[in-house]
Amino acid sequence: TADKVWTCALLPAKLINGGIAGMVGVTCVFPIDLAKTRLQNQRSGQQIYKNMMDCLVKTVKSEGYFGMYRGAAVNLTLVTPEKAIKLAANDFFRHTLSKDSGKLTVVKEMLAGCCAGMCQVIVTTPMEMLKIQLQDAGRLGKTIWSFMRVSAIQITRELLRTKGVTGLYRGLGATLMRDIPFSVVYFPLFAHVHQLGQHLSEEPSVPFYWSFMSGCLAGSIAAVAVSPCDVVKTRLQSLKKGANEETYSGVVDCIRKILRKEGPGAFLKGASCRALVIAPLFGIAQVVYFVGVGEFLLGYTPYNICSA
């Protein structure tokens, strides 16, 4: 059956595509992601960095070139399953929801994106939790974090020792609040923009550059749309605070305190950085995905997929 073919043949290839795409994308844009995290964690009146470029320049001066890649190892390790789950899950749910009618309505596309966003947080939450601690260490100045080489393994052990597995899933609600709307906006938007690149209705293939542009456009729009949720998530997942930086008991408390002390504009901190991170990340991801690297590595061709 078609379901058996998709599961046995295409799913492993889609997982490989998502994993490779995530690793390539993260390597390219990680310094901008680091700047985004540090800008989001800045409080009004305690600004160390003026903008993204100022943050990157100061990071290189104080921490060296590799300081821009602080936390990259954990991200590269976990982005493979994260992107694999996100992209493959969306494909799976789109396939499942289109079985009866043979086509997808916008509502079904959004539902597929929603399901994909819910699936990915299993990996996204601990990945973001660990990454943020490492990325934000340099911003905190001369604290204990500056005098010891804190690794993701050390942070994980400490969290498991003090708070158990739930410690790694701090900010889960905020992560869901960010990733579900992102996927709901991104995947339908990408699908429709990508479809515009088809020159002939009977020829489904699209030029690789159009896949890249479609991923960039849809990714940047979705990233800016959910940027306030990303700020809340970053604040909640930052364990170490600077002098006079408040703590938050949850999503509602975080939103309330940010509004009262920093104003609505604080929810857009790092929005441009996030757009610059997500746009090429998903552009690269979609190129790898649609070129079919996974299918090539597994030796699949249109013929043996159909005859599986």
From TrEMBL:
- What keywords is this UniProt entry annotated with? Membrane, Mitochondrion, Mitochondrion inner membrane, Phosphoprotein, Repeat, Symport, Transmembrane, Transmembrane helix, Transport
Give any GO molecular function from the UniProt entry: symporter activity
Output the InterPro entries linked to this UniProt entry: MCP (IPR002067), MCP_dom_sf (IPR023395), MCP_transmembrane (IPR018108), Mito_Solute_Carrier (IPR051028)
Fetch the PROSITE patterns from UniProt: SOLCAR
Q: Quick one: a GO biological-process term for this protein?
A: malate-aspartate shuttle
For membrane topology, the record states: Multi-pass membrane protein
Q: Where is it mostly found? A: mitochondrion
TM regions (residue ranges): 15-35, 266-291
Q: Where is this protein found?
A: Mitochondrion inner membrane
Q: Which GO terms describe its cellular component?
A: mitochondrial inner membrane
Keyword presence, Repeat:
yes
What the entry lists under Pfam families is as follows: Mito_carr
Q: Where are the Solcar repeats?
A: 9-96, 104-196, 206-295
Q: Which reaction does it catalyse?
A: L-glutamate(in) + H(+)(in) = L-glutamate(out) + H(+)(out)
Q: Does the keyword Transmembrane apply?
A: yes
Report the sequence similarity comment from the record: Belongs to the mitochondrial carrier (TC 2.A.29) family.
| Primary role | Responsible for the transport of glutamate from the cytosol into the mitochondrial matrix with the concomitant import of a proton (symport system).
The protein, known as: Mitochondrial glutamate carrier 2
